[in-house]
Specification:
This protein is α+β, with helices and mostly antiparallel strands and 389 residues long. The protein is built from 11 helices and 5 strands, in the order H-E-E-E-E-E-H-H-H-H-H-H-H-H-H-H.
């Protein structure tokens, strides 16, 4: 897997600049600003309407210390209409060639501080409970974000194969995060193999049913905007890449849990063979899958909640609502990911049951005529503690 990932990185590593005009997309230069006044009054363009007239002091850029004015109709409920004194915001800078009165426009609310505080609280909670493992899990998150930002996203924007890029990134993320969070051992390697095998199944089903359902990948406004500035992208492939990356985060949770369950079952009774461990592990896996699949459905539903609210009020029959491309994408991703999750349980459990009993089979367990080394050591320790009868 590592060799395959290295080959994939070498082939699809992003080179050159993507053919996208960031300024046309609306992401040009930005400056920080702080709202100094915000007053509700008649609009300059319509005296009968009420507007929120905002004055903001620019805190960065070439015009630092000067003021920019913004105005928005209160009835529109836009972010500008809800600004208040003291709010930190971001302004788009159209450049020195534009009329100073129209140079700066509202871009977004500044959310840096609350997000930093939330991230710090999250980090402290993880490390406080997980200690070293928690710290390594945070490092794994950093690796995941780094792989996505440095390789996956730039490679996709340059027209590389979405399937190849997604699988390459998934291997790097899975190998790094699983070994970082859980250490290098037989059990983590089994979880890694089970994760990637299930992910390959998910990718195959996603490609097949995405094509069968004629999903174009252009069901959202963001995709349509991206099409205008990057028409060479494979948008159906982007859907497949999203399915693979989304499934990876849930698959490693399921596989790690299954492997841990099998190892603990074996530790509690080393005499149980692979068949017995598999049966017990599957019983645990059924409960885990039942809750995890529901979690996946709720996650995708939450992501599409505004669209669902609109479509349910459209007056269309429910069958037509569910087969619109916007919802069909969510349905395909949910069901394909769920099938991968279901398949990961028997696959990982079987592999874990075989690996955890392999050493005992090699050491001639009791069922082959004499006690295993593990059993002999345990008996010796018990005699040493209690003494001879």
């Amino acid at each position: 897997m590592v060799v395959a990932a290295l080959v994939g990185i070498a082939v699809w590593w992003p080179r050159g600049d993507p053919a996208i005009d960031r300024e046309v997309l609306g992401y040009g230069d930005r400056v920080d600003a702080t709202v100094t006044t915000a007053e509700i009054g008649p609009c300059s363009f319509d005296p009968e309407a009420e507007c929120n007239s905002v004055s903001a002091r620019i805190a960065s850029g070439p015009d630092e210390g000067t003021f920019a004015t913004l105005e928005a109709d209160v009835a529109t409920r836009t972010p500008v209409a809800e600004l208040r004194r003291g709010d930190d915001i971001l302004l788009n800078d159209a450049g020195p060639d534009v009329d100073p009165a129209a140079r700066y426009s509202f871009a977004d609310v500044q959310r840096r501080l609350p997000l930093v505080i939330l991230a710090a609280v999250f980090g402290v909670a993880v490390v406080a409970l997980g200690r070293l493992r928690g710290l390594l899990a945070l490092v794994g998150i950093g690796v995941t974000v780094g792989v996505l930002l440095a390789f996956v996203f730039p490679a996709l924007l340059r027209g590389a194969s979405p399937l190849g890029v997604a699988l390459t990134g998934a291997i790097v993320i899975a190998v790094s995060t699983i070994y970082l969070a859980h250490g290098v051992s037989d059990r983590t390697t089994v979880a890694l193999v089970g994760t990637m095998a299930s992910l390959l199944l998910t990718a195959a089903l996603g490609a097949a049913f995405g094509a069968a359902a004629h999903l174009s990948g252009l069901a959202t406004d963001e995709s349509v905007n991206l099409l205008a500035f990057a028409p060479e992208l494979d948008f159906r492939g982007l859907l497949l890449a999203a399915t693979i990356i989304g499934a990876l985060g849930v698959l490693d949770d399921v596989t790690i849990t299954q492997v841990s369950a099998v190892w603990e079952l074996h530790h509690s009774d080393p005499r149980v063979g692979a068949r017995g461990l598999y049966s017990a592990g599957i019983r645990i896996g059924r409960d885990h899958i039942a809750s995890t699949v529901n979690t996946l459905v709720l996650a995708y539903t939450a992501a599409a909640l505004p669209t669902l609210l609109l479509l349910t009020q459209s007056g269309l029959p429910m069958a037509e609502v569910l087969t619109t491309e916007t919802l069909a994408v969510e349905i395909v991703q949910t069901l394909v990911g769920s099938i991968g999750l279901v398949a990961s349980v028997p696959l990982t459990t079987a592999l874990a049951s075989w690996v955890v009993t392999l050493a005992d089979r090699q050491q001639q367990p009791e069922r082959f005529g004499r006690p295993s080394r593990r059993a002999a050591v345990a008996e010796h320790r018990e005699d040493a503690f209690w003494g001879p009868p």
